Amino acid sequence: MSPLTLQAPAKLNLHLEVLGERADGFHELAMLMQSIDLCDQLHLEVAAPGQLQLECSDPSLPLDGSNLIIKAAELLRQFVARPELGARIRLEKRIPIGAGLAGGSSDGAAALLGLSEFWGLKLTASELHGLAAALGSDVAFCLAGGSQLCFGRGECLEPLVGAPALGVLLLKHPAVSVSTPWAYGRCRELRSDFYL
């Protein structure tokens, strides 16, 4: 296995419409999402059999099973019934945590794609999409990237073909982070339909 480096691009929600609550506790959404050039970087290297090591340039990021990178690796190993697969994963964190730019989801998507290649698993695009959707609401988009109309809780994607380029955007991250569950909880408290 040769070392592998992947980009994990951030995303912008250009439109987000909360259509209501679903029976599974999530919200039914209609969104327009766009990948942007701001990226985290994942470096995959050989590790001892069965060992998953995660290191990160940002010491505030959890490195345990709550991290979507580790969840992605575990999900892949379970899916192919190969618990002996191992990897050392180094994450260079550039996407601000809690900024709503899907940094964690993008890292999880890059881990799915990268580890699938690194471990020689030869999964289909459909299998990877299913695993991404199981990992989290934004992970399927982050796996596909580009410009997409997203529905459901974010796992149903429709490529936006011929969309005009966004041009140059300046993003400013204030020293405030917002938890996604908290934000959706506030939508529930305020009203059932909400537009951003």
Name its key features.
5 helices, alpha+beta, 196 residues, globular, seven-stranded mixed β-sheet
Query: Low-confidence runs (pLDDT<50, min 5 residues)?
Result: none
Series of secondary-structure elements, N-terminal to C-terminal: EEEHEHHHEEHE
Question: What characterizes the major β-sheet?
Answer: 7 strands, mixed
Gyration radius, in Å:
17 Å
Structural class: alpha+beta
The number of domains is 1
CATH top level class name:
Alpha Beta
N- to C-terminal separation? 44 Å
CATH topology call: Ribosomal Protein S5, domain 2
What is the overall silhouette? globular
How are the SSEs ordered, and which strands pair?
Layout: E1 4-21, E2 27-45, E3 52-56, H1 68-79, E4 87-92, H2 103-118, H3 125-135, H4 139-144, E5 147-152, E6 156-159, H5 180-190, E7 194-195
Parallel strand pairs: 3-4
Antiparallel strand pairs: 1-2, 1-7, 2-4, 2-5, 5-6
Helix pairs in contact: 1-2, 2-3
Kindly describe this structure.
The protein is of the alpha+beta class. It has one domain (4-195): 2-Layer Sandwich (Ribosomal Protein S5, domain 2). 29% of the residues lie in helices and 31% in strands. It contains 5 helices and 7 strands. Strands 1, 2, 3, 4, 5, 6 and 7 form a 7-stranded mixed β-sheet that branches.
